[in-house]
Amino acid sequence: MVQEKPADIVLALREGEKYPSLVAKEVGTTFAHAFNVLSKLERMGVVTSQERGRIRWVKLTERGEELASLLERLKGMAEVMDAYVELEEMYSKEVKNKLREEVDKEKVAKKLEELRRRVNALAGREDEVGKRAKKFLERVEEVEREAKGIVVGEG
């Protein structure tokens, strides 16, 4: 979908102006790779650079800020979607169509807590990612109730 390191480089620059070796270190790539990506991003108008003394500093342009915002939303949506897939796989395997006694409640609780932790921060956002994350957390609660054998009826 989106190349991971170039996207991470753009997102790292969202925090402000940096020099290329720091960007490389933050995203876990080599200086040469970061430098090549930054050069390409500069040609595309996503970043701008300026030499001060012996150091070249890079920062996002307005276009770069827009791209970073889109990448952040895309990354958030992908995180929620991945969590949904894991939740539904675990539900099908560990909970669905099983008697209460057959459910490994400890294993299910551990997985639900891990998924909850991964998505919790996203639920605080005020965008589509936040809405989807909140819906996901509601689904986690449903699965948790079913795994514990708590039946919630209408009435």
Q: How is this fold's topology laid out?
A:
Blueprint: H1 4-13, H2 20-27, H3 31-43, E1 47-52, E2 55-60, H4 62-94, H5 105-123, H6 128-148
Antiparallel strand pairs: 1-2
Helix pairs in contact: 1-2, 2-3, 4-5, 4-6, 5-6
Overview of this protein structure:
- By secondary structure, the chain is mainly α.
- It folds into two domains: 4-60, Orthogonal Bundle (Arc Repressor Mutant, subunit A), CATH 1.10.10; 72-148, no CATH class.
- It has helices at 4-13, 20-27, 31-43, 62-94, 105-123, 128-148; strands at residues 47-52, 55-60.
- The chain has a two-stranded antiparallel ribbon with strand order 1-2.
- Helix 1 (4-13) crosses helix 2 (20-27), helix 4 (62-94) packs antiparallel against helix 5 (105-123) and helix 4 packs parallel to helix 6.
- The longest helix is centred in the middle third of the chain and has 33 residues, at 62-94.
- The protein is elongated.
